[in-house]
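Researcher: Sequence recovery benchmark, item below. Answer with residues only.
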């Protein structure tokens, strides 16, 4: 049974109670509406947002949770769905759909500065959740170099840091900055902006 006093696990995180006030127009109103998850409710590493030092694993890699390496991401191929892995605890951060990621490997020479500074040898990671109403983004046009949301046809350009180029989404897709440690893909920092639907 749904508990109205329990924030939905996919609700957007609030960095602090002050942030909850700002984003929700009042902490009580925000929590009651389930629009915000306070930071103190997000201690579970599985539900926490990706952090610097996390590794990446395939989202559908049942039993295959080996950290992804550069060679695992095929250049020019369709995006892989991935999840962050807390390296310290070995926990896959699969407790929130807002942690779903799309991984692509693009030509480094094609990246605009907004994408290049968060890429690892052409590999870029984006939130897989559309910034319009939160549908999963599942398609990629290799011809146009665009990620496509089929709910209301928003389009995003990964080579331009997830810039929205068409459709009703009001903002770009958040990037997850990456780096390489040897040939292992490692999260370099948190999302560049809040993942999820725009409230
Ligand atoms: S949810 Fe993606 S365009 Fe509406």
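Model:
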């Amino acid at each position: 049974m749904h508990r109205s006093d329990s924030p939905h696990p996919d609700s957007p995180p609030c960095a602090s109670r002050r942030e909850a006030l700002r984003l929700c127009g009042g902490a009580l109103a925000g929590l009651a509406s389930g629009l915000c998850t306070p930071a103190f409710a997000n201690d579970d590493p599985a539900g926490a947002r990706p952090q610097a030092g996390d590794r990446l694993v395939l989202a559908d890699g049942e039993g295959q949770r080996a950290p992804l390496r550069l060679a695992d991401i095929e250049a020019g191929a369709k995006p892989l769905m991935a999840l962050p892995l807390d390296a310290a605890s070995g926990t896959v951060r699969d407790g929130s759909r807002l942690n779903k990621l799309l991984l692509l490997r693009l030509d480094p020479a094609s990246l605009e500065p907004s994408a290049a500074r968060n890429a690892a040898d052409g590999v870029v990671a984006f939130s897989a959740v559309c910034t319009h109403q939160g549908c999963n983004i599942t398609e990629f046009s290799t011809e146009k170099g665009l990620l496509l949301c089929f709910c209301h046809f928003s389009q995003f350009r990964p080579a331009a840091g997830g810039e929205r180029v068409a459709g009703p989404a009001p903002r770009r897709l958040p990037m997850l900055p990456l780096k390489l440690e040897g040939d292992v893909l490692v999260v370099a920092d948190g999302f560049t902006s809040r993942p999820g639907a725009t409230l």
